[in-house]
Write a structure and sequence with these properties.
Blueprint: E1 7-8, E2 29-31, E3 38-40, E4 52-54, E5 59-64, H1 78-83, H2 94-101, E6 115-122, E7 130-140, E8 144-150, E9 167-168, E10 173-176, E11 179-188, E12 194-201, E13 204-209, E14 213-218, E15 236-238, E16 249-253, E17 261-269, E18 280-281, E19 284-293, H3 295-302, E20 309-311, E21 315-322, H4 325-343, H5 348-358, E22 360-365, E23 371-378
Parallel strand pairs: 1-7, 2-5, 4-6
Antiparallel strand pairs: 3-6, 5-19, 6-17, 7-16, 7-19, 8-11, 9-10, 10-11, 11-12, 12-13, 14-15, 14-17, 16-20, 17-18, 20-21, 21-23, 22-23
Helix pairs in contact: 4-5
Length: 386
């Protein structure tokens, strides 16, 4: 089977959404997000019952639901919420409506905002393995999304409009109870190229490139305590690294039998830092290949790291995670050094010099309690000399 590795634009009868029936199912398995296959605000752990079991190397298509538009502070009614921006009811994904109408999350204070789908067991996975998560295809399920700023969060907590204010913008913005929700559309120009569009006044708009990716990808933790979906960690989770788009691979240290892979927090676009709290959040149909890497092969991939690691066709990506941004940076430098010395044979002093001269350290996000820094190392810099 030939799998798509591009983000496909699908024609729509309205400016809001592709026809759900026209979006390809690229994986061998299909996992819908329902109240039975999802959890709201928390992550799977070693005691979580898998909602699907697959073989090593299988492909799984997830229909991922965005939390934006269904959260309690937005009314937990996506039809009414998106309707206030002019979205017809039939263009609000059915699974988002079902999650909002269900009892999911009603009996507790939500530990996090994200709708997390899974876990998926990979047969034969055991602690000590790496789970390789290849993102094969990403298809948009709507032609709109939301960027939210909750005033007690983001890079500038409390500095933007008064948390008690309630206002409506020019059909593109709502502020209710301290949450500003900015409505964003996806539009094509005359060449067919797509952009995200944020309007802020009559005839005025900011247009920016799309870069869909999945913000939450992780494995079950070793204990049986459910973690909040907000902070990332050794399990992966809410890494929010915008480079993990089609053609990328994320390597996660397996902590529990079966690995327990899950996904959520779909994005249409994000800038490094994600400073307002969210980026352009919107639902995706995402297909992953789930493969196991063991022994010496695992060591070659990550450089003996016990932390998540990633790569694209052009880059290796080392990660640093910590509540303190300075420490996250130091952790990222250490991870990059460990990777280079193990993978390339470079001595540590030369690797340090290379990172300073040639690698790019980027802030993944500063809004998820545990802050993230990632290092982009060009593969082309390490071609053998002739």
């Amino acid at each position: 089977m030939s799998l798509r590795t591009d983000v496909t634009a699908h024609p729509a009868a309205t400016p809001y959404a592709p026809d759900p029936e026209a979006i390809p199912l690229d994986g061998r398995h299909h996992l819908a997000t329902t109240p039975d296959t999802a959890r709201w605000g928390e992550l799977p752990h070693a005691g979580s019952v898998p909602v699907l079991a697959v073989a090593d190397g299988d492909t799984v298509t997830f229909d991922l639901v965005s939390h934006e538009g269904i959260l309690p502070d937005q009314g937990r009614d996506p039809v009414a919420f998106f309707g206030s921006f002019g979205v017809p009811e039939d263009r609000v994904p059915r699974d988002a409506r079902e999650i909002a109408e269900s009892g999911l999350g009603l009996t507790q204070t939500l530990p996090g905002p994200h709708i997390v789908t899974g876990p998926v067991a990979v047969r034969g996975a055991r602690p000590g393995d790496l789970l390789r998560v290849e993102t094969l295809s990403l298809h948009r399920r709507t032609h709109y999304g939301i960027v939210s700023n909750r005033h007690a969060a983001g890079a500038l907590p409390g500095e933007l409009p008064d948390g008690e204010a309630e206002f409506t913008g020019p059909d593109t913005r709502r502020c209710i109870g301290g949450t500003v929700s900015s409505f964003c559309t996806v539009e094509r120009d005359g060449t067919g190229a797509e952009s995200g569009v944020l309007r802020y006044g009559p005839g005025r708009a900011a247009r920016f490139p799309l870069g869909p990716f999945v913000g939450v990808m992780g494995v079950a933790t070793a204990d049986e305590t459910a973690l909040s979906s907000v902070p990332p960690g050794r399990h992966g989770g809410n890494l929010d690294i915008k480079h993990l788009t089609c053609g990328s691979s994320l390597y996660l240290p397996v902590q529990a039998e079966g690995a327990g892979f899950y996904a959520g927090d779909p994005h249409f676009a994000q800038g490094n830092g994600e400073v307002a709290l969210t980026a352009l959040e919107a639902p995706l149909r995402a297909t992953f290949r789930l493969s196991l890497v063991r022994g010496s092969a695992a060591r070659r991939v990550t450089g003996l790291l016990g932390e998540p690691f990633a790569e694209t066709a052009a880059h290796w990506i080392a990660l640093g995670l910590d509540a303190d941004l300075d420490e996250a940076m130091r952790q990222c430098v250490r991870s990059a050094l460990d990777f280079l010395t193990t993978r390339t044979g470079m001595d540590r002093a030369t690797a340090y010099a290379y990172l300073s001269a040639a690698a790019d350290f980027e802030v993944s996000q500063v809004v998820d309690r545990i802050k993230g820094v990632h290092c982009m190392i060009r593969k082309a810099d390490f071609r053998a000399e002739t």
